[in-house]
Amino acid sequence: MTPSVSLLLMLLLGFSQAHPLMEEGSAAEIPVNEDHTVDITTRILTSNNVTDEILLEGDLLAPRTRNAMMCWSQNCLWRKASNGLVMIPFTMSSEFTSWERQKIDYAMNTFHSKTCIRFVPRQNEYDYISIENKVGCFSALGREGGRQVLSLNRQGCLYHGIIQHEINHALGFQHEQTRSDRDYYVRINWENINPQMAYNFYRQNTNNLNTPYDYSSIMHYGRTAFSIQYGRDSITPIPDPNVQIGQRQGMSYWDIMRINMLYGC
Ligand SMILES: [Zn+2]
């Protein structure tokens, strides 16, 4: 190999490692090389700015059948098969490219490897998740019955953390900062929130599964969610205001534990 050829190869190799999102690289590279300077909720809320769906708390589809935002009774959980696995049928829109499908598969794989949840291509099951490229990133809360849309807009939502966030909603999990006991852990700065958006911060009657409040949950809003003005925080952790909130990467230890607890994995 001549020096110029090996130099070229080194350059190409270096380039492919620095820009794996432009390549059909191995799935393991995906989350590591994403841009993590923006937290998940900021991205979700930005993508959802233009949607005309009725969304609660930014990215939850208003329930069709339930009259409250609650999902911890058996009838909104996905059913467990006799082999102990929770099989969740899904379909994926043909609008997604193979690279985009790979990202979605990769996000699902964490559920497969750490919990008893298994996403399986739908055959003819009645209840299933339809993953679609709608305007915005959103999901229903828990199993709704029949076909339920989980939207991952191709432009704004195909990030590892966002995909997992929306899947977690479909499993029945709400936002961490609306937990029933959240006032012990965060202060909601109502003066920095548009009054029309205040409902997004109402406390919910959540089932916390006796798990600690988790600032690092993938379901926790970032500190400026729904803020009226750049630089003004809507959520401040207490007592230590400097605790990091608003996840950027993927499910936390407790996110995974809670799935296992809720579904008795
Ligand atoms: Zn959400």
From TrEMBL:
Protein keywords: Cytoplasmic vesicle, Disulfide bond, Glycoprotein, Hydrolase, Metal-binding, Metalloprotease, Protease, Signal, Zinc, Zymogen
Location relative to the cell: Zymogen granule
Gene3D superfamilies: Collagenase (Catalytic Domain)
Residue ranges occupied by any Peptidase M12A domain in the UniProt entry: 67-265
E.C. number: 3.4.24.-
Sample GO molecular function, one term: metalloendopeptidase activity
Domain of life of the native organism: Eukaryota
Any GO CC annotation of this UniProt entry: zymogen granule
Top-rank EC class of the record's enzyme: hydrolase
Main location: other
Cofactor: Zn(2+)
PANTHER family xref list: DISCOIDIN, CUB, EGF, LAMININ , AND ZINC METALLOPROTEASE DOMAIN CONTAINING, HATCHING ENZYME 1.2-RELATED
Protein name: Metalloendopeptidase
Species assigned in the record: Collichthys lucidus
